Amino acid sequence: MSNAVLEVKELVKVFGETRAVDGLSFHVEQGEIFALLGPNGAGKSTTIRCLTTLLHLTSGSIAVCGHDVVKEPDAVRTCLGYVPQELALDRHLTGREHLELSARLYRLPRAQAKARIAELLELVELAERADDPAKTYSGGMKKRLDLACGLLHQPKLLVLDEPTLGLDVQTRHRIWTFVSRLRESGTTVLMTTHYLDEADQLANRIAVVDHGKIVAQGSAAELKQGFGGQVLKLELDGDAALSEAQWTAVRALEGVSHAEPRGKRILFVCADAQALVAPLTAWLEGEGLALQSLSFGPPGLDDVFLKLTGHALRD
Ligand SMILES: Nc1ncnc2c1ncn2[C@@H]1O[C@H](COP(=O)(O)OP(=O)(O)O)[C@@H](O)[C@H]1O
Ligand SMILES: [Mg+2]
Question: What pTM did the predictor assign?
Answer without folding.
Answer: 0.89
